[in-house]
Write a structure and sequence with these properties.
alpha/beta, Rossmann fold, two-stranded antiparallel ribbon
Length: 426
């Protein structure tokens, strides 16, 4: 068994090295004028995310709270930066939300596209900031999902963006779930419209999907146990035929998760007598889980590449890695490389950018700790053999550590809230 793990690790290393050349010929997509991402750190792995949600669902607050939590390390091994003009905007939104006397940040208007370019950093050699990867986060106007007059070029572009994205985030308004649970018939119709339209767009492509339940604080009285609460909400979502179809038909080969998020925390808002969300005069802003949709992007993309490979066929090839002849082992390595390359091609086409750190993604994200450790050992051996400097080795270890921390954040979520990972149940 140990030999299989070591062979698998070697296969992953060879595969990702070959993938560097394959991904280097990626296609370059057109970007709408005025919505171009920052050109900084273009040599890093870059992942494109499209966030879908109706007007008022909390997309803007999620984005502001997410950045507020991630812009400093706060006990993590990484932090996130953005171009200065975007930082000003995000902090302005968060400041408006935190002010009990101010209104909520302005929602994205129809026809308006917000593209935010985030770079994940850690501390590299000599305590210098070390960029690890980029995530481009595209926030679309909610009116495109519900306004019958919307559409045309904006909707066409949205569909194109979804088709070329690496991951999707679907934002479901917890306010309407609250009203649905309370027996509001209008909420039932509203939820049907929200979920059906969103899922229809998501079914266009096989991409990892994170459904975010916003305004989770409005649902805290449903049950004391949070996973029990999430399971209760999930059952209501599964009543929607389209949502159930997405889960039952796709969860076997794409990552689909359900994440509860409160962008303001449990003690900042309440429902007034008219049933509207209002700020408490003495409320304290303490976002919960706002970083999780961001942290899940890269691990979910990697997991889906793994899922694209036929596991029975892969196991048979890995068995040959312990064969008696060097020629046979080399042929098996070549076959594994081809399998992983084809899997990535089927999933992402020629979109996923190339970078020298792709090999570190394998060491940091490959499922199975023993495999990841073996990949790291092989990398260390190659570094020593090739005369890589101590600084570069330190930076490589730092990058791998960040990727493992992202993986750990997702694993902790699933351990704490088993209902967050959607399987093939109906």
């Amino acid at each position: 068994m140990a030999g299989v793990f070591i062979g698998a690790a070697m296969a992953v290393v060879v595969a990702v090295i070959i993938a560097l050349r394959w991904w280097a010929h990626r296609s370059i997509r057109a970007v709408k004028p005025g919505a171009s991402p920052a050109p900084a750190h273009t040599e890093l792995p870059t992942f494109d995310v499209v966030a879908l949600g109706t007007r008022g669902s909390g997309k803007t607050m999620l984005l502001a709270s997410m950045y507020s939590q991630l812009q400093t390390r706060s006990g993590r091994g990484y932090y996130v930066t953005a171009p200065f003009d975007q930082v000003v905007r995000l902090n302005q939104w968060f400041g408006e939300a935190a002010d009990p006397q101010a209104g909520w940040p302005r929602a994205t208007s129809t026809g308006e596209t917000r593209l935010f370019s985030f770079t994940v950093h850690t501390e590299g050699a000599y305590a210098r900031p070390l960029p690890v990867l980029n995530i481009n986060y595209l926030d679309y106007a909610g009116g495109l999902l519900t306004d019958p007059e919307a559409g045309g070029p904006d909707l066409d572009e949205l569909c194109a963006r979804i088709d070329s994205a690496h991951a999707l985030i679907g934002i479901i308004d917890g306010f309407w779930i609250r009203r649905l649970i309370d027996g509001d018939l209008l909420a039932k119709t509203r939820m049907q419209q929200i979920v059906t339209t969103m899922v229809h767009l998501m079914l266009r492509v096989d991409r990892p999907v994170t459904f975010v339940i916003t305004k989770w604080d409005l649902l805290q009285d449903i049950a004391v146990d949070e996973d029990e609460r999430l399971s209760f909400v999930r059952k209501h979502l599964m009543y929607n035929q389209n949502f159930r179809d997405l889960v039952s038909a796709h969860a076997s080969h794409r990552v689909v998760r359900l994440v509860p998020v409160s962008s303001v925390g449990p003690d900042f808002t309440s429902l007034d007598q008219a049933g509207l969300v209002v700020k408490r005069p003495d409320g304290e802003l303490r976002p919960t889980n706002a970083d999780l949709p961001f942290a899940a992007v890269v691990p979910d993309v990697w997991d889906q590449i793994e899922q694209q490979v036929g596991q029975t066929e892969l196991a048979a090839v890995l068995d040959r890695l312990n064969g008696p002849t060097a020629k046979g082992r080399a042929a098996a390595l070549s076959e594994v490389t081809e399998m992983l390359s084809q899997a990535a091609g089927r999933l992402f086409g020629m979109v996923l950018p190339a970078a020298g750190t792709i090999i570190d993604l394998a060491a940091g994200l490959y499922r199975g700790p023993s495999v990841g450790e073996q990949v790291s050992e092989v990398l260390a051996e190659r570094s020593t053999r090739d005369g890589v400097t101590q600084e570069l080795q330190f930076n490589r270890i730092a990058r791998i550590r960040v990727l493992r921390e992202l993986r750990s954040r997702v694993d902790v979520l699933e351990g704490r809230l088993p209902s967050s990972r959607l399987g093939a149940e109906v």
